[in-house]
Amino acid sequence: MEVKRFTKNDSGFTCIHCGRKVEPLGYTSRNHCPYCLWSVHIDINPGDRACECGGALRPIGADTDPKRGFIVIHKCERCGAVKRNKAAEDDDRDLLISLTVAGK
Question: What per-residue confidence (pLDDT) applies to 68?
Fold first, then answer.
């Protein structure tokens, strides 16, 4: 039996870091704030909301992938886990670029 590694869970939220209201993406699961790129450690697999940690995920860097575009690298402020998430189309590009340069 195949295990699902992605669950579409596209809901809006209020960012825990900057406090801005974040709207759903409409095409996939919204993972992080498009304004400050912070997230919350609530997923084990994308969209499953199965992680009990609940810590703030601070953006610590970004990579570029020729097929997937920007990949945001987060580190959990509570448990130290490092997560990689594809950037959304409406993410702050200047912030993504600054994270890409900072990570090199």
Answer: 87
- Evaluate whether residue 1 is within a structural domain: no
- Look at residue 30 and tell me if it is in a domain: yes
Residue 58: which of 23, 103, 7, 12 has the closest Cα? 103
Q: Which domain holds residue 56?
A: 13-102
Q: Are 52 and 44 in contact (CB under 8 A)?
A: no
Residue 28 lies inside a defined structural domain of this protein: yes
**Separation of alpha carbons 39 and 54, rounded Å:** 10
Q: Is residue 4 one of the residues assigned to a domain?
A: no
Q: Which residues pair with 82 in a beta bridge?
A: 75
How sure is the predictor about 28, in pLDDT bands with cuts at 50, 70 and 90?
confident
Q: What is the mean pLDDT of residues 53-77?
A: 95
Burial classification of residue 60, based on how many CB atoms lie within 10 Å of its CB (0-12 exposed, 13-18 middle, 19 or more buried): middle
Whether pLDDT at 84 is above 80: yes
